[in-house]
Design brief:
single chain; mainly alpha
Length: 110
């Protein structure tokens, strides 16, 4: 949900890459993460997304662990379906990711 919020705010600067497609070696996704900075949002404590991005030599700009955000704002550990109150976590992550998107965008202008 967090990335959908970021994409809504920056539709021309962001793309959501499907992890199963990437792991399945879909050429478009593999080339995309090699050519553009990637912001990884880890829902898996074993860093599955990071491992897949690294496997294909992706450019990891930054990464965030959902569990860390849950701890930061004292929410229960419900990752599959957010209650209305827990939608706060998606907004919180989206704010952090949006700052990275701004940094990437500004660095390309220089």
């Amino acid at each position: 949900q967090a990335m959908y919020k970021v994409i809504e705010d920056s539709p021309n600067d962001t793309v959501l890459v499907c992890l199963p497609a990437l792991a399945g070696e879909v050429e478009e996704d593999v080339l995309f993460i090699r050519d553009y900075p990637t912001i990884v949002i880890e829902g898996c404590p074993d860093a599955c997304s990071t491992r897949v991005v690294k496997q294909f030599n992706g450019q990891i700009y930054s990464r965030y662990f959902v569990n860390d955000f849950i701890k930061d704002i004292n929410l229960s550990n419900s990752l599959i379906e957010l209650t209305p109150e827990e939608d706060t976590i998606a907004k919180y992550i989206a704010e952090k990711v949006a700052l990275d998107v701004d940094k990437i965008r500004n660095s390309k202008k220089e």
